[in-house]
Amino acid sequence: MSLVERDLAVIWHPYTQMKTALPHVPIVRGEGACLYGEDGKRYIDAVSSWWVNIHGHANPYIAKKVAEQLLKLEHVIFAGFTHPTAIELAERLLAILPSNQKKAFYSDNGSTAIEVAIKMCLQYWHNQGKPRTKMLAFKNAYHGDTFGAMAVSGRSAFTAAFDSLLFEVEFIDLPDASNIKALKSRISYLRSELACFIFEPLVQGTAGMVMYEVEYLDELLAHCKQEGVLTIADEVFTGFGRTGKLFACDHLSQQPDIMCFSKGLTGGTMALGLTTCTDEIYNAFLSDDKLKTLFHGHSYTANPVACSAALASLDITLDASTMQSIKRIEAMHSGFAEKIKHHPKIKTTRQTGTILAMEWETGSSTSYFSSLRDRLYLYFLNAGIILRPLGNIIYILPPYCITNDELNYIYAKIEDALEEL
Ligand SMILES: *Cc1c(COP(=O)(O)O)cnc(C)c1O
């Protein structure tokens, strides 16, 4: 049996209606920005493998550090015990995060990093005998697939089967010049009930690479602070250079109370989640009373191998050449956006850092629209490029090591698609 047949026999893939799914492409090897199929076909990974890979596939430096760690200590229970790799990672990250971030709490992935943040906020109020249970989030937000993370995500087809079980969240529009006043007064009105405000800073990835302005986010955050509403920055997607700065919050003048990381944290090598917080949050749990403990921990919390991958990835991220690559990709993207933005089939283009999104004109025919996504996906797959359109939105967010030749090839194929599809 081929890999495709064996896959179909035993695997249930995420986000996939298995009955109508296209065959899943077997990938057997990766190098730099490229992946290689069983048949040797090369694919440029223009989506960084679900946005996680920032330094290329099978990165030799990360592999070496992970191998060394595996032979030293593969895992240890993280309650009652600690290990140097987790400590060093927390020290090094807290040193480069916004200055109010003082403590690091490890978990397994982006969704669990969000769960931890939500529990920190709810229990922060509970521990002080002033329970607050409502949360504030943006419409169309995406914060993960576990229940808490799903609850603070926009209601959609993703959540429909569970909507009645999700806790109470007030969803607001993204802030802009026209609504900022109204949003602030809504927050003031709800303030005594609001435990926290959770947001994806500057770019809502899953919503379709929807981007919004620093200025109004800053204003919202300042208002939350004034009204005593805790703030959670979900940097699971935006962290580690994606937006052109190390963290999306580095674009802001306000600092969130809590930050969540995963995706790029290990360079896309291993699953690891991290939630950081201020001393104020941490101190609300610091007590002689056992009931004030944050009762949350996963078996693989702070796994040393994952932490070693994160440290290795951080070494590369902080190397000056990486920021140069990020700036190079930014400049390449904006040159390409400039070139195609007036094409009749392009509705809009938008860019933040290394993320370039292009909204495709869908015309009036709904059947054309509904098949467009799959036709685009297959067109690029055939051309040896992995692009996963979100509806009619195509986005490129490559590993930072992608070459100019590889980027130019992607751009050329997008131009071909504009003519041919
Ligand atoms: C992917 C993502 C998550 C969830 O992370 P997982 O590791 O997939 O659970 C949360 N928030 C944002 C903004 C994301 O893009």
Summarize the entry for a quick read.
The chain is α/β, with parallel strands linked by helices and 421 residues long. It has helices at residues 3-10, 48-51, 60-72, 84-96, 110-127, 147-151, 180-190, 214-227, 279-283, 304-318, 320-340, 366-382, 404-420; strands at residues 27-31, 34-37, 42-45, 103-107, 134-138, 169-172, 194-199, 203-204, 210-211, 230-234, 258-261, 273-277, 346-352, 355-360, 385-386, 393-396.
Describe this structure in words.
- The chain is an alpha/beta fold.
- The protein folds into two domains: 3-58 and 321-420, Aspartate Aminotransferase, domain 1; 64-317, Type I PLP-dependent aspartate aminotransferase-like (Major domain) (Aspartate Aminotransferase, domain 2).
- It contains 13 helices and 16 strands.
- Strands 4-12-11-10-7-5-6 form a seven-stranded mixed sheet, with helices on both faces. The chain has a four-stranded mixed sheet with strand order 1-2-3-15.
- A hairpin with a 2-residue loop joins strand 1 and strand 2.
- Helix 4 (84-96) runs parallel beside helix 10.
- The radius of gyration is 22 Å and the shape is globular.
- It starts with a helix and ends with a helix.
- Pyridoxal-5'-phosphate (PLP) is lined by residues 109-111, 114, 142-144, 200, 205-206, 234, 236-237, 262-263.
- The site of pyridoxal-5'-phosphate (PLP) has 15 residues, from helix 5.
